[in-house]
Amino acid sequence: MYIDAITLQGFRNYVDAGAEFSGGINVIAGANAQGKTNLLEAIFLVCAGRSFRARSDRELMGFDADMARVEAHGLSGERERRVEVIFTRGRRRQLIVNSVKQKTVETFAGNFSAVLFCPEDLNLIKGGAAERRRLMDLSICQLRPRYAAALNEFNRAYEGKTRILRDWEEKPDLLGLLDEYDYVLARLSAELIHYRANFVEKLAGEAARIHGEFSGGEKLELRYTTVKTVTDPTAPAARIFPEIMEHQRRHREAELASRLCLTGAHKDDIEISVNGAPARSFASQGQTRTAALSMKLAELEIHRGQLGEYPLLLLDDVLSELDERRQDFILNRIGGGQVFITCCEDEKVAKRTGGRVLTVEAGNVYPSGK
Ligand SMILES: Nc1ncnc2c1ncn2[C@@H]1O[C@H](COP(=O)(O)OP(=O)(O)O)[C@@H](O)[C@H]1O
Ligand SMILES: [Mg+2]
C-alpha cells in the first residue's frame, strides 16, 4: 500500500500545496514550524478519518480558511483509491472515496492505513493511561471500521452524561435523561472494550516477541484493564454489556455525589510489566524505550497481518530521539512498506535511509534539490 500524491488546501498552514511521494522511504526535511508534522497529520487523516492530535475540525482548518481539503491518491489492496476529506466551517466534514460521499467514518477509515510513531510514544510506558488509549484508538479505528463509529458515538454520549452529572443539582430535570445515557454508554463501552481487549491480546503477543528479541530475552507483558465487573473483556459485547450496567447501577449514588462519570471505557488502560515488575514504576529508561518501540512495531505487525501488506509508517521526529541501535532496529523492520520520516534539515539520521527527500518550507513541499 502506498500514497503517491497528496494535495492540501486550507489545511493548517498549507494554503494550497501538493506533493508526490515515493512508494518506499520519504524523508520530510525542514526547519521548525514549517509544516512537517502537519503533512503527516494530513496523511494520517486520510487513512484513519481522524487526526492524531486535533480535538476539533476547526483546529485543522487554516486560520483564515472557510474550507479545507485534503486529497490523496494511491494503491491499497491492489486497488487504486482516491480519498478526500473536506472541512467547511460550521458544517460536518465530508468523507469521500473514489468520488463517492461516505455517510460515516466507518466506510472511510481503513481504505488506507497508517501507524504513527512520534516522540510522545516514548512515554507510552511512563505516561498516563490516555497515551495508551490513544494507541488503541488510533489503531483499531483503522483495523475495525465499526470501532471508529462507536468511538465517536461514545465520546458524544460521554460528554452528554458528564454535563448531566455536572449540572443536575442546578437543573434536576436533567436526571430524567440519565437512564438513557447510562444505557447508551454501557452499550458503546461494551463494544469498545471487546475490540480493545482483543487488540491488546494480539499486541501483547507481538510486542513480547519483538521486545525479547531486541533485549536478549527480557519478558514484556501487556494486559488490558477495564471496568472491574467485566469478567472477560475479550467476550462478545453482548456479554460485557450487562456487567457494565451492573457496575453503573452500583455507582449511581457515587456518580451523583462526585459529579463524575465512574463507569465506562473512558478509564481503560494497558498494564505493562517487564520481567514481572510493573514497568511504570520499575523499568529503566532504556527498558521503557525498548518496550515502547516494541509496542509500536507490534502495532505495525498487526496491521500487516490483517491487511496482508504493510501499512504506511509515519515517523515524526522520532529517529533522532533514539540511539543508533534502536534506529537500526526500526529501519530493519520497515519491510518493503511506504515510510514517511520527518527530521530537521541538518539531520543525517533520516537521510542515511537513502529515501526520497522532500523539503517543507512555510506550508509548501518541494522535491529535493528544489
Ligand atoms: N490551523 C492552522 N492554521 C494555520 N497555521 C497553523 C494551523 N495549525 C498550526 N499552524 C502552524 O503550523 C506550524 C507548525 O507546523 P508543524 O507541522 O507542527 O511544524 P514542524 O515542521 O515543526 O513539524 C506553526 O507555525 C503553526 O502556527
Ligand atoms: Mg513537528
List the keywords.
Rossmann fold, six-stranded mixed β-sheet, Glutathione S-transferase Yfyf (Class Pi), Chain A, domain 2, binds adenosine-5'-diphosphate, 9 helices, alpha/beta, binds magnesium ion, six-stranded antiparallel β-sheet, 370 residues, 2 domains
CATH topology of the largest domain, by name, is Rossmann fold
Main sheet: strand order = 2-1-4-5-6-7
Give the strand tally. Answer: 15
Tally of separate domains: 2
The appropriate CATH architecture of the largest domain is: 3-Layer(aba) Sandwich
Order of helices and strands: EEEHHEEEEEHHHEHEEHHEHEEE
Task: State the fourth-level CATH superfamily of the largest domain.
Answer: P-loop containing nucleotide triphosphate hydrolases
Tell me what the structure shows:
- The structure is a single chain.
- The protein has 370 residues and is of the alpha/beta class.
- It folds into 2 domains: 1-113 and 311-370, P-loop containing nucleotide triphosphate hydrolases (Rossmann fold, 3-Layer(aba) Sandwich); 131-287, RecF/RecN/SMC, N-terminal domain (Glutathione S-transferase Yfyf (Class Pi), Chain A, domain 2).
- Helices cover 41% and strands 24% of the residues.
- The protein contains 9 helices and 15 strands.
- It has helices at 36-48, 57-60, 129-143, 145-167, 178-215, 237-258, 279-282, 285-307, 324-331; strands spanning 2-11, 14-20, 25-29, 67-76, 79-88, 94-97, 100-102, 114-117, 220-225, 269-274, 277-278, 312-316, 339-343, 356-361, 364-367.
- It has a 6-stranded antiparallel β-sheet with strand order 2-1-4-5-6-7. The protein has a 6-stranded mixed β-sheet with strand order 8-12-13-3-14-15, with helices on both faces. It has a 3-stranded antiparallel β-sheet with strand order 9-10-11.
- Strand 14 (356-361) and strand 15 (364-367) form a beta hairpin.
- Helix 4 crosses helix 5 (178-215).
- The protein is globular and about 60 Å long.
- The chain binds adenosine-5'-diphosphate and magnesium ion.
- Adenosine-5'-diphosphate (ADP) is lined by residues 12-13, 30, 32-38, 59, 61-63.
